[in-house]
Amino acid sequence: MYVTHITYYCLCGHNDAKQYERSKREREGLLLQLKVMTHAVPLQRWRELGVEEQRAYIMRLLDALEVTDRDKRLKVARAILYLAQGVFDECDTEMDTLHCSRHNIFLLYEMGVFTALLELLSMEIENNQACSSAVRKPAISLADSTELRVLLSIMYLMVEAIRVEMEDDKPEWKSSRETFKTELASPLCNGEPFALLLFTMVTKFCSMNAPHFPMKKVLLLLWKTVLFTLGGFEELQQMKVAARERISLPPLPEDSIKVVRSMRAASPPASAMELIEQQQQKAKLPLVKQDSLDTYNERDPFKNDDSRDEEEDADDADNGLEGEVDPLDRDVIIQPPPPPAPLRPPTERVCFPKGLPWAPKVREKDIEHFLETSRNKFIGFTLGNDIETLVGLPRPIHESVKTLKQHKYVSIAEVQIKKEEELQQCPLTLVCHTTGRCFGHSGSLCSSDSIALLKLLLAAAPTSKAKTDSINILADVLPEEMPVTVLQSMKLGIDVNRHKEIIVKAISALLLLLLKHFKLNHIYQFEYVSQHLVFANCIPLILKFFNQNIMSYISSKNSICVLDFPHCVVHEMPELTAESLEAGDSNQFCWRNLFSCINLLRILNKLTKWKHSRTMMLVVFKSAPILKRALKVKQAMMQLYVLKLLKIQTKYLGRQWRKSNMKTMSAIYQKVRHRLNDDWAYGNDIDARPWDFQAEECALRESIEKFNARRYDKNQNSEFVPVDNCLQSVLGQRVDLPEDFHYSYEMWLEREVFSQPIQWEGLLQAQ
C-alpha cells in the first residue's frame, strides 16, 4: 500500500501521538464540533455522506481557513488533517483507513485544498514575528511549530498519496495525478516551484533566522516533491534510454536496476578473532577431505555459498554484529533476495553462477591510448586521435582493437562535453539550446542549499557531537515539558534517534535524486552541483558517517510498533513499559538506516567517479578500513557500491595493501563492472599523476563557468552582439542617463557640442 512505510509519528512524532491516545468519543468530538462551526450536519458520519455533501463540507472548511483568528484556522487545519488521515474513527481495519485516506486526499485536491494550504504555508514562512520570537527563545519545543507541522503533514500526505499510482485508481484520479505533477513543477509561489519554496525554508532554518521550522517534515516533503515532479529511479532509467535514442547512441548493454536486484550478497570480511578461530578449527581437521571442509563452511551462519568473497583482514578487528540481513522492504529499487538454500549433502559441490553480472565497457579514450602505445612500440610515431588506421600494426593488435570496439560505450555525458567544446570553438555558427528543466534557478539552489543540506546531515549523523554553535534539529521533537519518568525518557530517546535517522534518510535520498537528474539533463549541471558538494566537505562528511559500528547502526531499533499509523488509531493502545520499549520490534534490521547508507555510498561514488583528485581525498582520509567495515553488511547493493569505492583507490594504496587484501580484490573482480585496459589492480594508470590534481579541478571549474555563462548569464558578453547599422534604430534607442543629468544638460551641450569645432571636409574625406 502507498503509506505502509509512513508511520504515524513520522508525520506527527511520538509526543503528538498523545492526542490520539484519547478515547474515540473525544476524537469524534473534534470533527463534530467543526461540523457545527461550519454549519454542516453534525449527526451524520463522514463516510455516510454522499460525494456532493462531502464536497460541500470541504468547501465550508476552505471558507473557514480564511478567518483572521489563528486558533480557528488551526482547528480547521486539524480537521483537514483528520480527513487526510482517513477519518480513522469510522474505520475498523488498517486497510479500510488507508483506502478512506486515499479517497479523501484526491477529493481534497480536487476542491483546491492544496493551493489554500500553500498560501497559509507562505504566510507562516514570512511571519517575521514568529521567527524573531523563536530566535529570542532559549529553548524551542513542539509548541513553537504547531501550525507549520499541521500544514506540512497534510501536504506530505497529499503529495505521497497522489504520487503513487495503484491498479484500482479511477480515471479521474489519474488525470488529477498528472495535473498535480504539472502544478508542483510550475511556478506556484512568488514565481518559483514548490520545491524551491521548501529549499528556502531549509536555508532560512540553517541560517538561524527561523529555528522553529520543523526540518524533518520539510525535508520529507521536499524529497517526495522532487521524487514526484522529476521522477524516481525507474523513470530515470526510462528517460536515459529515451535520451540515448534521441542522440543516436546504441542502447544500454543491460538494465542496471535488474542486475542489482539479481545480485547476491557476499560474506562479510573476517575479523582477526575469526581468523584465529578458523586456524584453530583447521588445525583440528588436518586430514579431512575437501568435501567435508565445504560442508563445514556451509554450516557457518555468517557465510554464504560464495566463500571466495570472504576477506582476510587481520589489521581490522571489529566486534560488530555479523548476522545476515536481507532486505524486507520495497522502499528502494532492489527486491528481496531469495531465501538461502538449505544445507547440501556432503557429496554435492558448490556451483557458482557462470559469467559476470556486468558487460565490460571501453571508452574511446581507452582505445586511443591503447593505439598510441602500440604505434609508439611498433611504428615509432602516433596518429593523434585516429582509432581507425591500423597500418603497420601486427595481427594481435588488430584483434585487440576489434574486441575493444565491440565493447565501446559512449555515454550521454561524453556527447554533451563534445558539443560544448564545439560551441566554445564556434560560438556564432552553432545554435546553443537552453537546457535545464530543473536547473533554471540553480545559481541560488546549488550554492547555499547544498551547504544547508550538508549542515543538517552533519547535525543528524550519529557520529556527530553536540556543539553550542551547531543548528538545533530537535526543535520539532522535544516537548514543552521534559520527561520525569524512566518510561518517558526512554520514549523520548527513541523518538530523538528516529528523528535523526529520518532526516538522514530524506537528505541522502534527495541529494542522490538531484545528482542523477542533473547528470541526465546535462553533465555540467551535475558537475556544478558536485563541485559545490566537494568544496563543502561532503566527502569527509560521508566518511565520518561511516566511521562507526555500521552493523549496530543498521540493526538499531528506534521505533515503537504500537504507535505506527494506522495501527495506533485503529487498535486499542496497549500499555507501554520500559521492557517493551527496550525490546523494540521483531525486524532483524532497520530498513531506513540501510536505505540511507546505500544512498550515501552512491553519492560518494558519483562525486569521485573519474575524478583522480577526489579519489585521492578518499586515500588521504584513510577510507579503505572504514569501507571494509561496511562490507560486513550482507546486502548486495550496499556491498556493490563499497567495492566500487575500494576499486577506484586500489592503485593508490600500494602493492602491500593489495597483497594482503586479495579476497577483497577477488570480490571486486566478481561484482564490479570491468573496464578493459583498466589497470586498477596494478597501479599503472598514467592518469594517476599527483601534479595534475589541482589542474583537473580548475579546468573543470572553467568549463562549468563557460557553460553557465552561455545559458544562464543575463549579462551576455557584447562582443558577439550584432552591430546595428540603421541610423534611425540607433537614434531611437533609449539611453539610461544619470538622475542629475538634466540639471547640467545645457552646460554639457555648450562644452561638448557648441564649443567643439567640427571639420566637415576632413570627415567627408575620411569616409
Major β-sheet annotation: none
Helix content: 55-70%
The general outline is globular
Given as residue ranges, the uncertain stretches (5+ residues, pLDDT < 50) are 1-28, 36-42, 285-353, 437-444
Short note summarizing the structure:
The protein has 767 residues and is an all-alpha fold.
Structure report:
The chain is 57% helix and 0% strand. The chain is globular, with a radius of gyration of 32 Å. The protein starts with 7 loop residues before the first helix and ends with a helix. By secondary structure, the chain is mainly α.
Topology overview:
Elements: H1 8-11, H2 13-16, H3 24-37, H4 51-64, H5 70-84, H6 94-110, H7 113-125, H8 128-136, H9 146-163, H10 171-185, H11 194-206, H12 215-230, H13 233-246, H14 256-262, H15 272-284, H16 290-298, H17 364-378, H18 395-406, H19 412-425, H20 442-460, H21 486-521, H22 523-535, H23 538-546, H24 550-554, H25 567-570, H26 578-583, H27 591-608, H28 612-620, H29 623-630, H30 636-653, H31 655-660, H32 662-671, H33 693-712, H34 727-731, H35 745-754, H36 760-766
Helix pairs in contact: 4-5, 5-9, 6-9, 7-9, 9-12, 10-12, 11-12, 11-20, 12-21, 13-21, 17-18, 20-21, 20-22, 21-22, 21-27, 22-33, 23-27, 27-30, 28-30, 29-30, 30-32
